[in-house]
Amino acid sequence: MKFAMSNGILSFIRKYPDETACIAAIAKLRWADGFSCSKCGSTKAHHLKSRPRIFECSGCHHQHSVTAGTVFHKTRTDLTKWFLAAYMMASDKRGVSAMHVSRELGMRYDTAWLMCHKLRAALFERNGFELKNFIEADETFYGGYREKGLRGRSKNDKKATVVLAVEKVLAKKGNREWIAGNARIEVIESADATTLTDFMTRNVAPKARIITDGWRGYNGLKDAGFKHHGVIASGPAAGEHLPMVHIMFSNLKAWLNGTHHGVSKKHLHRYLREWNYRFNRRNGPVAEFVLNRLATRTGITYQALVG
Ligand SMILES: [Zn+2]
Predict the structure, then answer these.
(1) CA of 72 relative to ligand 1 center, distance in Å
(2) Are residue 24 and residue 141 in the same domain, yes or no?
(3) How many CA atoms lie within 13 A of 300 on its CB side?
(4) 22 part of a folded domain
């Protein structure tokens, strides 16, 4: 029954209704095998009533903050708000803006902004995850503006170059209907052969079949061991050969410019990572998976964000 789904927002709120429940959840995630004191190895700890995020070792009385070394490190924001923001970011296909989080959760905009970036930084693909079989790939520009007289892939420092590769999966054998599998997207310094070959080598399984346009930046793919097919076409016809990446680029830009009102080149890679992460998990609930990431990894600092 559709309406009996157990991973909606209501069940999420019931599961993490208050600070105590969130602390317990973080403790369970970061100490997966139970509490263990880093000083004396004791497995017994008790809570300090006045500081519920502190676990005091029953053996040596060393105090452990449940949030130390996690993305929640030293946060003064309610953990329930963190959890809900993680839920929103993980669940909403269009993603959420800092403005939206600030309004929905009753937070100052700059607090929400930092929180969103910390959440976003935690959403990244694990290493060693490769795209397989049949791949469609292309690059696009984002941001800035195209200077007069410059065409195609010419250099423009205000624009970021973005490369995308997506698996084409045959949905129905009979009528050759393709659907998107997993994708990889990155900001690259330039669309030259060295950079594009490096991107494919890092993200695509050896011997995979890659279809691109006729850009010379893809000329190194054959030597790198891929089965490469470059379609020589320009203008409106080019899109027909690479339908999937073009739809994805257009959805991506709508998200960057619509939900986020445009994104600067400096922060673009983090937005792409979030978008990529959610795209690859678009068919399943991801909130709990995100919480696991948050509780078991250190967060990006404000200095690293603005530096
Ligand atoms: Zn101890």
Answers:
(1) 22
(2) no
(3) 20
(4) yes
